[in-house]
Amino acid sequence: MFAIILTPIMQFATACNLNKGSFLKFPTWYKYLHGETVAGKCSVVFNFPGDISKILLAVVEIMLRIAALVAVGFIIYGGFRYILSQGEPDQTNAARDTIINALIGLVIVIIATTVVAFVFHNLAQ
Asked: What is the pTM of this model?
């Protein structure tokens, strides 16, 4: 039943190089899956119970990269707020807090991305 649902999705999503990135170098959801050539086209080999964790790892990695972009956006936003605060202590402190919180979030995202890569490369293969 799952093969009937997932086959069109996998045929649409796969390319000849399964490990190449997509838009803005985001990984694809099938990054950690293996591929095989069938009738001259590369397609994903999906084994239902075992490959769910690999797909979840790829989705988590995509979400962590989006979170990193959001954190960088908040750093830029905090910088603009700091510049536009014109020395007022309340606005300057709020802008500084925004920058510090965004930097903490970025560090957490980088550590989480490293953990995801570690889990895949050491435990999932």
From this structure: 0.68
